[in-house]
């Protein structure tokens, strides 16, 4: 008879990671949807509009915040063990290198890899960021947010309009050609996109330093204010781009488009902060009365890297033109429904693994390769 894994983990980050994978699933599944040559319906338009407001560009800042939080947890864990700063830096570099390798192979399967981006952060920047004062960290985060606003229109995330001809590797029918194409895309995309996650990573380190989500009951009023303001700003900032992408607004000019892309990306960070605060508030109700559903989602959060990869595999099997091929047949709404179903399956499997003390295979792999007991992807 197996006993569930017993840990002293905080609920908020695990719960946030578990729900985060729902956002990731919704943001990723639709990238295989190809409506070219088919009628665009009002349901397609409304689906894209809502996704743009609440999901696209709002999931990855939350991802970045949780990653930064995890970096700080690694540091504190190593200090608690009496390990030197020199050894801790080696841990970050080893972890970053292995994440880059995982991200590269993931990219051969799915073009929207983010693992490699965080690998670069861990490999190159983590040891620098974690030694900064709070003031310097806030200044650097603000500077990089300005960079994001300036350069986001040149490298948009999820901004393709419904009537645009899709030319990404998701539409290539030969799996070898698609993989090779994605390899070259990844080698350019990964280092260039790293600057966009830096503000979120720095915010996450600050959140960990102030122990805001470690002790949410002590910060209920602040969490409520941040959750409301963050999600309102994020939603409002996503409306212009959502209208454009969904073709509900087609009479805009280049200036409006550039402005909307910048606004959409910058306010996505407000959404990431708002979602983090909202999960902290939820934990104040759930921590003492944890039910089966919250435990299952937390179990998924503990294995977020493994199931991030698992979701990509399922999307390829179901939607890619060289596999299930559903991406060229289903609607935007049906694509989102598949995303939800994949997430539900992930929750179910993660809970099964938790009840049988089965850890996430990729979390275990990174832990062993880094020779530490804490993981900043899964801790």
How helical, in percent, are the residues? 55-70%
- Class inferred from helices and paired strands: mainly alpha
Note the main sheet: none
Helix count equals 13
Order of helices and strands: HHHHHHHHHHHHH
The number of domains: 1
Work out the strand percent: under 5%
Q: Regarding quaternary structure, how should these chains be classified?
A: single chain
Mean pLDDT: 88
Rg over C-alpha atoms, rounded to the nearest angstrom: 20 Å
Low-confidence stretches: 1-7
Let me know the number of strands.
Answer: 0
Cα-to-Cα separation, first versus last residue: 26 Å
Query: Which term fits the overall shape?
Result: globular
Give an account of the 3D structure:
The chain has one domain. Helices cover 70% and strands 0% of the residues. Helix 1 packs antiparallel against helix 9, helix 3 crosses helix 9 and helix 4 runs antiparallel to helix 5. With 379 residues, it is mainly α.
What is the fold's blueprint, element by element?
Elements: H1 11-29, H2 42-54, H3 59-80, H4 85-107, H5 115-129, H6 134-151, H7 175-209, H8 220-245, H9 254-286, H10 292-302, H11 304-319, H12 332-355, H13 361-370
């Amino acid at each position: 008879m197996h006993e569930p894994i017993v840990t002293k983990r905080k609920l908020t980050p695990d719960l946030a990671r578990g729900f985060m994978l729902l956002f990731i699933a919704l943001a990723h599944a639709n990238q295989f949807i190809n409506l070219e040559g088919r009628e665009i319906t009002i349901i397609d338009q409304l689906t894209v509009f809502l996704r743009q407001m609440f999901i696209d560009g709002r999931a990855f800042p939350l991802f970045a915040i949780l990653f930064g939080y995890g970096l700080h947890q690694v540091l504190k864990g190593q200090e608690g063990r009496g390990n030197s700063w020199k050894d801790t830096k080696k841990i970050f570099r080893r972890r970053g290198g292995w994440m880059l390798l995982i991200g590269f192979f993931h990219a051969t399967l799915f073009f929207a890899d983010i693992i490699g981006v965080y690998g670069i952060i861990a490999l190159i920047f983590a040891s620098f960021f974690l030694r900064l004062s709070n003031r310097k960290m806030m200044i650097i985060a603000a500077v990089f947010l300005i960079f994001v606003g300036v350069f986001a229109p040149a490298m948009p995330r999820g901004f393709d309009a419904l009537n645009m001809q899709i030319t990404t590797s998701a539409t290539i029918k030969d799996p070898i050609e698609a993989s090779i194409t994605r390899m070259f895309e990844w080698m350019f995309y990964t280092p260039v996109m790293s600057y966009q996650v830096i503000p979120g990573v720095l915010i996450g380190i600050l959140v960990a330093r102030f122990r805001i989500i470690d002790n949410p009951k002590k910060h209920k009023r602040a969490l409520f204010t941040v959750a409301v303001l963050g999600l309102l700003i994020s939603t409002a900032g996503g409306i212009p781009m959502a209208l454009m992408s969904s073709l509900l607004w087609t009479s805009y000019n280049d200036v409006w488009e550039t402005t909307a892309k910048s606004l959409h990306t910058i306010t996505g960070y407000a959404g990431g902060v708002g979602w983090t605060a909202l999960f902290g508030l939820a934990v104040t109700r759930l921590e003492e009365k944890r039910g089966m559903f919250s435990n299952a989602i937390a179990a998924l959060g503990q294995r977020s890297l493994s199931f991030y990869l698992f979701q990509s595999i399922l999307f390829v099997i179901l939607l890619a033109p060289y596999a299930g091929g559903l991406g060229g047949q289903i609607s935007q709404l049906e694509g989102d429904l598949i995303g939800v179903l994949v997430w539900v399956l992930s929750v179910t499997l993660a809970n099964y693994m938790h009840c049988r003390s089965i850890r996430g295979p990729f979390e275990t792999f990174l832990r062993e390769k880094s020779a530490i007991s804490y993981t900043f992807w899964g801790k």
